[in-house]
Amino acid sequence: MRKSLVLVWIGVTIISLTSCVSQKKFSDLEGRYRECTDEVASLRQQRQDLENEKKELNSTNGRLKEESKKLGSDTLSLGQALRDAKFDLAKLNKSHDELLDAMAKMQSGSQTELQRLLGELQVTQEKLSHKQDSLRSLEKELAGRQKRLAELERMLAKQDSLTIALRKKVADALLSFQGKGLTVTMKNGKVYVSLEESLLFKSGSYDVGARGEAALEQLASVLATNPDISVMIEGHTDNVPYRGAGQLKDNWDLSVMRATQVVKILMKNKMIDPSRLTAAGRSEYLPLTANTTPEGKASNRRTEIILTPKLDELYKLIEGK
Asked: Is residue 291 predicted with pLDDT exceeding 90?
């Protein structure tokens, strides 16, 4: 609020002094006023980005807690099954001992009764052996689940730390472009670099301008030093039908060609393996907002670069491989 009041005071001062200062001083004051205004706009954008990141981290944290809760519930179920098996085993052991006692008492009795008791003893021994096998199997499965739960929690924590670190590296490298048609966010364990059409292309064109190429070169330098990051480039348009001439026929063609041009610029950095890059066109079918206003259409005309840390170990763990 204090900074806004300062800006207003500067503006009033500029207006009041226009009649009594030289043209040069007026221009200097006017320039300082514009710089202050731009700074306020940039700070507001940064605050919005931080709020969006906070919401995303809260969502990711909730998802991980839910997964941990589910695995914890499964572990409790196995623990109960183990306790039930131990109880049944104790009962069988007791029955076994009782039969042994009865058989000892019947040694002097009839041969028929002795054979009956021997048969019951054999059945009991077979059940006891089967229950012992089941108990060992349950103990082994419970130990495996506990180990898998601990490993999954470790891998999820590692995934979060990798994604957060990657987001910071990218944001730092592209700091000079943020608030000027470029945003860096984190969602679903991935980092999204969103570039507005005005930063990269002219309307209806897929040729990248100088400012856009400079931003992509900065991003390429980060990707080159992080070889375990997969990169998906998606082109997006609004719902206005494409009216250009030449080889492009519609918004599908335009979105694909824009994504492909971004890939080619990233590939100028020879340290980036092309197999890491994927170009895709989404046309008008994945909008950020409704195409009902000029502002909404402008926000939908974008190129998104989606960075995904390789999580082969985590996927193998989840699939039980």
From this structure: yes
User: What does the H/E/C string look like for 59-113?
Assistant: HHHHHHHHHHHHHHHHHHHHHHHHHHHHHHHHHHHHHHHHHHHHHHHCCCCCHHH
Task: Output phi, psi for 196, to 5 deg.
Answer: -70, 155
User: Global pTM?
Assistant: 0.56
Domain identity same for 311 and 186: yes
Q: Is 192 helix (H, G, I), strand (E, B) or coil?
A: strand
Strands, E, within the chain: which ranges? 182-187, 190-196, 229-236, 277-281, 302-309
Q: Are residues 147 and 229 in the same domain?
A: no
The predicted-structure confidence for 82-131, as pLDDT tens digits, reads as follows: 888 888 888 888 888 887 777 776 666 667 777 887 888 888 888 888 88
E-assigned strand segments in 125-276: 182-187, 190-196, 229-236
* Residue 5, in any domain of the structure: no
